[in-house]
Predict the structure of Serine hydrolase.
Amino acid sequence: MKTSLKFAATLLLISNLSFGQDVTQKIDSIINASHQKNPDIGISVGFIKNNEEHYIAHGRLNAESPNEINKNSIFEIASITKILTSNLIAQAVIDHKFKLDDYIDRFLPKDYVLNDNLKNKIKISDLASHQSGLPDIDFAKLIELNPQQPVSNVTEKTLAIMINDCTELKDYGKYRYSTIGYTLLGQILEKVYGKTYDEIIRAKIVKPFRMTHTLTKDFNVKNITTAHNPSGGIQEFFKWNVTAPAGLIKSNASDMVTYLKAVLNTETAIGKASVMAEKIYYKDEKREMGLGLNISTDDQNTIYLKSGDSMGQSSIICYNRAKKWGIIILLDQRNSKLRQDLLNQIYDTVLK
């Protein structure tokens, strides 16, 4: 019996290794074909299946560097930051700091004075699922003012004025993507924990899970990629400011796979919070939303995903809890079409 068990375990190990190698080869083939067509775009991909990690990368850190992109190369994860913020929100619920259906009024900084029409109207879950109805920043205008650092003109003062001047929630309860919503969530976290957003995310996500290449402030590191706008021009990384909870974190494939491992493990704080974030908080004929997560369901799969676009880079994260896989795709150019095409090809040929 012992011999049979050992033999079965050996077969299982060989099967898992074969599966992992096969998946990696298929994903690498897709990424390599894409890089051949787009040689100026650097790509880094991290994949996890049943807790096994796989990494694929193509391209160089920049045009002048001989150094190849690898799993430790730093990219802007942009709006993928929002799922980290929403995970912190869910952790705060678990910590009994507030409830998701609590109104935001008493959790906002003192500089915010909501109009009577807005009082006891907006729930914390409304902010996290993009249905608050609050006005958002005008990115087109900000880009005109400062194309390299558009969010530099967004301050705590300008945010307070925008919120305080709002007299009506014209589309409350309807989906409208919101940077302001996640900025407010970050400020709410700061109030309930009595710490800065930077301190909170480092204490609850970065340090416990040893995500040593996930950066919140100092981006002057050796293994950083160069960002490019859609035309191929060099674009600066966004600098940290009040909008950080909505999209200013930098990371790499290795750390994001570490995050995915924590998400898929319901024994971790991140995993427990992720289960809460995966519930449906908004639904219409076009989409289902969790807390910061898009939910996509077909006959066989339910996947959770979030994309991110800075001015110079594109990324996407996706996972399937039931089948225990997750993937992160990072590009060193703002190219949402290529990012989505890569995910679609990998999903249809490998993951589905």
User: Anything to note?
Assistant: The longest strand covers residues 302-309.
